[in-house]
Amino acid sequence: MIRIARVTADVLDVGAHLAAVRSSRTGAVALFIGQVRDHDPEVDGRVVGLDYTAHPDAETMLRGILVRLAEAADGDTLEIAVSHRIGNLDVGDDALVVAVASAHRAEAFAACREIVERIKTDLPVWKRQWQHDGASAWVGL
């Protein structure tokens, strides 16, 4: 069941995501937190922040990604909570939180990883990376 599917400018609450997926039917929770790091091996320079921009339908598209994944889970009970942050983020800020609960750890880990991969490839969210020298570049386009 999809508990949270948000694209938001609000600070992400990891505890709320964990609480949303906890259930007496599940025995494992996998958690992924994507944070803004202070470097990028693809550029020469220190990263000081990111600006995330999303398509207006990104939240609806996120829910669709999660629904398709839950439906393909072969009857395994999945509890899913996902939020992607948009706007201006500083180094250390959380940009993505994915929490998945399942009856067993293998399914929870696999679903969590699949969600992260699908978000990276299918969700229309773009990031502009700012470096310490004031230069910026769109990443992943």
From TrEMBL:
<dbReference type="InterPro" id="IPR003448">
    <property type="entry name" value="Mopterin_biosynth_MoaE"/>
</dbReference>
<dbReference type="Pfam" id="PF02391">
    <property type="entry name" value="MoaE"/>
</dbReference>
<dbReference type="InterPro" id="IPR036563">
    <property type="entry name" value="MoaE_sf"/>
</dbReference>
<protein>
    <submittedName>
        <fullName>Molybdenum cofactor biosynthesis protein MoaE</fullName>
    </submittedName>
</protein>
<dbReference type="GO" id="GO:0006777">
    <property type="term" value="P:Mo-molybdopterin cofactor biosynthetic process"/>
</dbReference>
